[in-house]
Amino acid sequence: AQSVTQPDIHITVSEGASLELRCNYSYGATPYLFWYVQSPGQGLQLLLKYFSGDTLVQGIKGFEAEFKRSQSSFNLRKPSVHWSDAAEYFCAVGSTDSWGKFQFGAGTQVVVTP
Amino acid sequence: EAEVAQSPRYKITEKSQAVAFWCDPISGHATLYWYRQILGQGPELLVQFQDESVVDDSQLPKDRFSAERLKGVDSTLKIQPAELGDSAMYLCASSDGQGLNTEAFFGQGTRLTVV
């Protein structure tokens, strides 16, 4: 069965500092991987996705993620965080038979300090 | 910009009462999903529709939950009777197909509190 693990429940980062959120997955075949962001009381917004090809994926809001098959990881990064990046971030594995059918991680709460 | 509409945004209900949530997907999106997100956890899929047909409801607690999408457009998720453990955010999502350039769009969710 597929699964997604986000080891960090909570991360605090200073504004302007770099950010890296970890995601490890377990999946039998080549996974479709996603990062979503959720602001308080809001739905989920897609940041980026990986299917195949270039293992470094660029997304919206200055985020990028790198797929590492050998480590079963898909970590999200941003070189310089802004106060508006404070939110909860979810890594997800997608199904190959149905778009929108995801296995989500438990999420990482990001707090940005001045 | 097209978006997935959900109502109500917030709902407080007493346990053992019935409650219903509504979702209107993006126009033309054939696939619709209901997710439940318990506080502090990631969303979990409850049910998936393709047009008006249920494709996957394996995680739907069928003794108390029901979902329908009668005309293949908007959808209703119902809980009867509600239990304290049903307190959660209920998210609806829709997508237009299975191609790699498509995307699932999420609504803002309905926050349910059962007291």
User: Separation of termini of chain B?
Assistant: 36 Å
String of helices and strands of chain A = EEEEEEEEEEEE
How many individual helices of chain A?
0
Output the radius of gyration of chain B: 14 Å
Q: What's the main sheet of chain A like?
A: 6 strands, mixed
The number of distinct helices of chain B, counting runs of at least 4 residues, comes to 0
Unreliable stretches of chain B: none
- Residue stretches of chain A low in confidence (pLDDT < 50, at least 5 long) are none
Mean pLDDT of chain A: 91
Strand content of chain A: over 45%
Quaternary state of the chains: heterodimer
- Percent helix among the residues of chain A? under 10%
Task: Give a nutshell description of this structure.
The complex is a heterodimer of chains A (114) and B (115). In chain A, 0% of the residues lie in helices and 52% in strands.
